Amino acid sequence: MLGNMALEPMESRSWHAHYDEGVPVDLAFEDITLNEYTERAAKTWGDRPALTFLNCSFTYSELNDKVRRCAAALRGLGVEKGTRVAIQLPNIPQAIIAFHGALRAGAEVVMTNPLYTLREIEHQWKDADCDLAIVADFIWEETLEPNRAKLRPKTYVVAHIPDYLRFPLNLLAPLKLARAKPKRYAKVKPAKDVHEFKPLVEGAPPTPPSLDVTPDDIAVLQYTGGTTGLSKGAVLTHRNLSCNAQQIHSWFPKVDPGNESTLICLPLFHVFGLSVGMNWSIWSGSKMVLVPNPRDIPALVKAITKHKVTLFPGVPALFNAINNFPGVENLDMTSVKSCFSGSAPIAKDVQEKFEALTKSTIIEGFGMSETSPVTHVNPLYGTRKIGSIGIPVSSTDSKIVDAEDDSKELGVGEEGELLVRGPQVMQGYWNREEESAEVLAGGWMHTGDLASMDEDGFFKICGRKKDMINCSGLKVFPDEVDEVLMGHPAILEAATIGVPDAERGETVKSFIVLNEGASLTAEEVEKYAREQLAAYKIPRKVEFMDELPKSSVMKILRRELRDREEQQG
Fold first, then answer.
1. Which of 252, 1, 206 is nearest to 104 (CA)?
2. Backbone angles phi, psi at 306, to 5 degrees
3. pTM of the predicted model, to two decimals?
4. C-alpha span between 147 and 140 (Å, rounded)
5. Nearest C-alpha neighbor of 86 from the set 141, 125, 126, 116
6. How many C-beta neighbours within 10 Å does residue 73 have?
7. Contacts of 54 (CB under 8 A, 6+ apart)
């Protein structure tokens, strides 16, 4: 591993002039591990609500008690300092208990997508050398139990979604979930080294082991999405994740600790949901409102209105879906104060419509698995540039370099690769020394994103190096094309890729989803684009779809569209 990228006191940067009042250039970080988060929250906000899930709720004292018991239970199963524990759960209370309980037991956590196939699970758990896995019952029954011999972990702890629900849902939910399609409840057959979550945790003493865990110890192996091949584990220490939670908190100086309510609909296995959702909430004593399925827009809207959600970390597809939810204009969603948008660029009309609906402010930011994740955000109260990812957060530096030669720093307005450094940057990729050295060359995280910086120090993402379309030597950035297309009143979503072309090398193809009841032709799309884009950027091919492929965090998967084109080509 290459060590922390903690900075010396920051040199003056153009963006520092745009920090909101109360946001420091250099943040005085508290040197604590994630193990101390729930303990401190229990001491500070013990009687305040920590989380709510359907008719289940815990105070911070109750949450900390369960975390302590979970740690003791895992130690009893052989977990020691450095043991790698996989967690494959939806957004339910057990995911939070398991994450912090495993850390308290000294483990290094591997968060795993519940939607993964056996091949993906097998790769991740073998790559990380996981010895124990905490999983959902339906995953255990359908995928894991029949294939135990192929998988690395020898011990399993199985959780049921209804475990902590109260009457009558504790009786009704198993029946409903067992009949659901896909199935979301299963009974666990007795087996060696297979334990049920709630009895195991509740039967353990509330006395976590005494461990010498330091901020520089590994907390999480955060696997990348695998959009360019097999996923890699970004090594994140307690310091990386703790610093990022503190950076996020400092960016919101008017947050009222102990009195906020945060919507946790982004999956906790994803670093955005993990850090901006869970870890920041526990740091600030916010009530976590858990919603397991971000695609369940009725559930999201109900959660916002019922629990008076004030903070909403989300992605553009979620804000857009809520905007288009039938009857949403008749609901009171004005409890929402601040929204943090990431994972993909947000269209101006989507942002403005949601802000008008809720009277909130959406600030777009940027991050990646390798940076815990947040590196850039727009100011909440001062200058906010829609369409940009904002400015580097406290104690974070950034620059634009030539995409082919990182020794050449580029000037204002020039497009190149985005580089960042700060205490939130990973230590490297797990067991991949050469790739780690390459991506962290010179003490800077090479993001692989193409961007530019304006005269005020605001950064704008132009696209991924691998997504850039080369039309006869001219660069086309898909995000720019998509933003223009989504400005059309008939278009709900758009995703643009490059496809082979005999004359131009590549040409532009856009996949489009129309608003319900709308109609549009490819010729009309081209005419609209021609009014706002240079000729070489105009989609020469247009395909209408009912739905675009999306990841578990609602990020549009251009990779799948490219694969589809190759298969059809």
1. 206
2. -70, -45
3. 0.86
4. 9
5. 125
6. 22
7. 165, 169, 173
Other beta carbons within 10 angstroms of residue 390's beta carbon come to 25
Mean pLDDT of the chain: 93
d(CA 309, CA 429): 36
Q: What is the reported pLDDT for 63?
A: 98
Both tokens of 312, joined, read: 């909403």
Tell me which residue of 428, 424, 404 sits closest to 416, measured CA to CA: 404
For residue 473, what pLDDT is reported? 66
- Cα 511 from Cα 546, distance rounded (Å): 10
- In tens, the pLDDT along 95-121 reads 999 999 999 999 999 999 898 889 889
| CA 365/CA 389 separation, integer angstroms | 5
Q: Using CA atoms in the order 365, 293, 73, 165, what is the torsion angle rounded to 10 degrees?
A: 130
- List phi, psi (to 5°) of 469: -100, 130
Q: Measured between alpha carbons, how far is 254 from 465 in angstroms, rounded to an integer? A: 37
Task: For residue 86, count CB atoms less than 10 angstroms from its CB and return exposed for 0-12, middle for 13-18, buried for 19 or more.
Answer: buried
In the DSSP assignment, the letter for residue 143 is I
Which residues, 6 or more positions from 334, have their beta carbon under 8 angstroms from its beta carbon?
358, 359, 360
CA 115 to chain centre: 15
Tell me the C-alpha distance between 92 and 184, whole Å. 12
Answer whether 493's CB lies under 8 Å from 486's CB.
yes
Contact between residue 97 and residue 202 where contact means Cβ atoms under 8 Å apart: no
3-state secondary structure of 171: helix
* pLDDT per position as a tens digit, 15-49: 999 999 999 999 999 999 999 999 999 999 999 99
Beta strand ranges found along 422-464 (DSSP E): 445-453, 459-464
- CA-based end-to-end distance of the chain: 42
Q: Distance (Å, rounded) from C-alpha 124 to C-alpha 216? A: 23
Q: Is the pLDDT of residue 9 over 80?
A: no
- Split at pLDDT 50, 70, 90, the class of 569 is low
Question: Tens digit of pLDDT for each residue in 380-402?
Answer: 999 999 989 999 999 999 999 99
Which of these, 381, 382, 295, 289, lies nearest to 335 by C-alpha position?
Answer: 289
Token couple for 463? 């696209």
Q: Which of 127, 124, 153 is nearest to 140 (CA)?
A: 153
Task: Decide: 412 and 454 in contact? Cβ < 8 Å.
Answer: yes
* Tens of pLDDT, residues 124-166: 999 999 999 999 999 999 999 999 999 999 999 999 999 999 9
